[in-house]
Design brief:
The protein is of the alpha+beta class. The chain has 6 domains: 65 residues, Orthogonal Bundle (Helix Hairpins); 232 residues, 2-Layer Sandwich (D-amino Acid Aminotransferase, Chain A, domain 1), CATH 3.30.470; 109 residues, Nucleic acid-binding proteins (OB fold (Dihydrolipoamide Acetyltransferase, E2P)), CATH 2.40.50.140; 84 residues, 5' to 3' exonuclease, C-terminal subdomain (DNA polymerase, domain 1); 93 residues, 5' to 3' exonuclease, C-terminal subdomain (DNA polymerase, domain 1), CATH 1.10.150.20; 68 residues, BRCT domain (Rossmann fold), CATH 3.40.50.10190. 35% of the residues lie in helices and 19% in strands. It contains 25 helices and 24 strands. The strands form 7 sheets. It has a 5-stranded mixed beta sheet with strand order 2-11-10-3-9. It is globular. The site of 2-(butylsulfanyl)adenosine (IVH) has 14 residues, from strand 3, strand 8 and strand 11.
Length: 715
């Protein structure tokens, strides 16, 4: 049997392989249907059929007349299909304190240039998981989870089993929208959750930690019959793509969704200004215990949908909404020890090991201790916290959880401190590699200086490299990376090593991966194919995957869109140093500051780091040919006269605030920069424009006034 990934088969090998697969599939079919005695598992059968189909897709000319691909019978789903959301599914900005609600209102007013009482909706924030339902001609055609906000999982069959989700919208056909994506939360009631856990226990299965986990686990079942047996519910609270506006206000849109057949939350109310918003918050908080399902806060939304449209979005949250979370839940427990974890960027992070305790329905045994100052009783500005009490092993500490975040320690009880308790001595050397752990001026974090020689940093970088927003290699998650990192036969120490796995395994006559524990013919082949598939990678993912300090997903997107190609990006950062034209270009990107620029320059100018990057991107000159980096396109395909143009605003604008102008321009595909350079296409100058107008004149950049700008964008 050949274990070669399909991508690597020659035509001759493919022909032989198709013949073999044809025989095996026919034999398995016979055993199953005719003899009623299956010889191989469904999964193995499915793998044969998929391999057959994959080879046919690569060599269409070799397809056999008796191909199993032409036989009817749905293949068993191997995970869920992917769905690209037409309109991104966003998350919400969080607030905890009452003052933050007033600040939110002020920000909205300021952005819009208004000073009047604004109306908002306030409604419970349901603690479940979000789902997008697509209706065409009033009929449910697709259901997708949020995923990363851009691409979710296709869970249509499962969603069809939920009673609250209509298969068909209510109303006369001519009144129904041609396209409507309804968004809301799937959740489980307390009573249903308790009964489900009783059933799990009776069947000897693991109970769910809380209703949200139970809802998520129930929706994401490969077998829709399992979902059908789980009592899930759904509240609609938002929408994605619509063929015609649902209404002019948020509240009317919700009423419309209700009329179309959805459950909407009865505690949704209109509030004029922050005082009324807070009153509704308190009312919902009072009712919380009797609702019968979990909520974790209140969501406020600007009611007027035309104002929502003007406010638009930040990178992942709308400017027109705020989630006001309920205070975190607290519990007391004993601090058993402090471990130091070394992260991807070398940060030494102290972790509290706790006597397990239940906080808000979840058992907590670890909590973050942030950094050495935090343990000593100081915040990042050096100011005293917890009345200056330091945290010692053996102390009684108060743990809290706020939302999904890692538990934290709020306080400690000095009266229960043991007389021999010692102040914690924060390590000065990296516990993983022994290198000096250094604390930079003004940084609260101590970092290991070992770089790639530190095994902890190296392995964390690899985990980051394969993570979902980076290379996302199927079958190669954090756990597998850790195993390969320490593997004596097929070690993976740097990202490039991932791409030489197949060649190294093929060249090794002895222990093949397919013969190892935890692997088989199918899974080894699948892994090699999954790795090969990711050799082609979009530029933004590659930049993010490098794991450079201060360069997160959003920054990677900005850099990719600015430079478009790997070659341009590489040339730009490798030569960047304060004062150079490359530096000026890099720091002129809106959203890239000096700290990030320096971090990028450091990574590309350090010989060891640089060698690792080059090995990954351009290959090793023999069995690994390097990556195929897909150039970045501007977000969405925006058809507008300013798409792809770099625009600078200066002087005062009269029709809208600077923030709104910038947000509009970006929504139309323009890049908005803070200063004028040779790359600027357009300067929009209002009254009082100063040095930027002069710069534009000197560089020959086109200058227009606000009126002309508004005409240009068709506003
Ligand atoms: S509105 C564009 N309303 O909270 C804004 N979200 O923390 C779309 N959620 O991803 C969200 N209850 O899953 C909205 N009444 C509510 C909600 C709600 C729960 C969830 C939703 C979202 C998450 C953000």
């Amino acid at each position: 049997m050949s274990e070669k990934p399909v991508e690597m088969l020659t035509e001759v090998e493919a022909r032989t392989e198709l013949a073999r697969l044809g025989l095996e599939i026919a034999a398995a079919n016979r055993a199953y249907h005719t003899l009623d005695a299956p010889e191989i598992s469904d999964a193995a059968f499915d793998a044969l059929k998929r391999r057959n189909a994959a080879i046919e897709a690569r060599f269409p000319g070799l397809k056999r007349p008796d191909s199993s691909s032409d036989q009817v019978g749905a293949a068993v789903a191997d995970g869920f299909g992917k769905v690209a959301h037409q309109v991104r599914m966003l998350s919400l900005e969080n607030a905890f304190a009452a003052e933050e609600v007033a600040e939110f209102d002020e920000r909205v007013q300021k952005f819009l240039g208004l000073s009047e009482v604004l109306t908002y909706t306030a409604e419970p924030k349901i603690d479940g998981l979000s789902l997008s339902l697509r209706y065409e001609g009033g009929v449910l055609v697709q259901a997708a989870t949020r995923g990363d906000g851009e691409v979710g999982e296709n869970v249509t069959e499962n969603a069809r089993t939920i009673a609250d989700i209509p298969q068909q919208l209510t109303g006369a056909p001519r009144d129904l929208p041609a396209i409507l994506e309804v968004r809301g939360e799937v959740y489980m009631s307390h009573a249903d959750f308790a009964a489900l856990n009783d059933r799990q226990a009776a069947a000897g299965d693991k109970p769910f930690a809380n209703p949200r986990n139970a809802a998520a686990g129930s929706l994401r079942q490969l077998d829709a019959r399992v979902t059908a047996s789980r009592p899930l519910r759904f509240f609609a609270y938002a929408w994605g793509e619509v063929s015609a506006p649902l209404a002019q206000t948020q509240i009317d849109a919700i009423t419309r969704l209700n009329a179309l057949g959805f459950q909407t939350n009865p505690l949704t109310a209109l509030c004029d200004g922050p005082l009324e918003m807070l009153a509704q918050y308190r009312l919902i908080e009072d009712r919380r215990a009797t609702l019968g399902y979990d909520i974790d806060g209140v969501v406020y939304k600007v009611n007027d949908l035309s104002l929502q449209a003007r406010l638009g979005f930040r990178s992942s949250t709308p400017r027109w909404a705020l989630a006001h979370k309920f205070p975190a839940e607290l519990a007391w427990t004993e601090l058993l020890g402090i471990d130091i974890q070394v992260g991807r960027t070398g940060a030494l992070s102290p972790v509290a090991r706790l006597q397990p305790v239940t906080v808000g329905g979840v058992v907590v045994s670890n909590a973050t201790l942030h950094n050495e100052d935090y343990i000593a009783g100081r915040d990042s500005k050096g100011e005293v916290i917890r009345g200056g009490k330091d945290i010692r092993v053996g102390d009684w500490v108060q743990v809290y959880r706020a939302g999904d975040v890692i538990p934290k320690i709020a306080d400690l009880d000095l009266s229960r401190r043991k007389s021999d308790a010692q102040p914690y001595d924060f390590p000065q050397l990296c516990p993983e590699c022994g290198s000096e752990a250094h604390r930079e001026e003004g940084d609260s974090v101590r970092r290991c200086t070992g770089g790639l020689i530190c095994p902890a940093q190296a392995v964390e970088r690899l985990k980051h490299f394969v993570s979902r927003a980076a290379f996302d290699i199927e079958g190669l998650g954090a756990k597998q990376v850790e195993l390969f990192f320490n593997d004596p036969i097929l070690p993976v120490k740097t990202p490039a090593d991932i791409f030489t796995l197949y060649a190294r395994d093929a060249a090794n006559p002895l222990q093949k991966l397919r013969n190892r524990d935890g692997f088989g013919e199918v899974s080894a082949t699948k892994l090699f194919a999954a790795i090969e598939a990711k050799r082609t990678i979009p530029l933004d993912r590659l930049i993010f995957a490098l794991g450079i300090r201060h360069v997160g997903e959003v920054a990677a997107g900005l850099l990719a869109r600015h430079y478009s190609t790997w070659a341009a990006f590489e040339a730009g950062v490798a030569k960047a140093e304060p004062g150079s034209p490359e530096w000026a270009e890099l720091t002129a990107i809106d959203g890239v500051g000096a700290v990030m620029a320096q971090s990028l320059a450091d990574a590309f100018q350090n010989p060891a780091e640089r060698a690792a990057i080059d090995n990954l991107v351009t290959g090793n000159g023999s069995d690994y040919k390097g990556l195929v980096v897909e150039p970045a396109a501007a977000r969405g395909v925006v058809d507008s006269p300013v798409a792809g143009k770099t625009v600078v605003f200066t002087g005062s604008l009269e029709k809208m605030t600077r923030a709104e102008a910038k947000s509009r321009a970006e929504a139309l595909g323009a890049k908005v920069a803070g200063s004028v350079s040779a790359r600027t296409d357009l300067l929009v100058a209002g009254p009082g424009a100063g040095s930027k107008a002069k710069d534009a004149e000197r560089l020959g950049v086109e200058v227009i006034d606000e009126e002309a700008w508004l005409r240009l964008i068709g506003a």
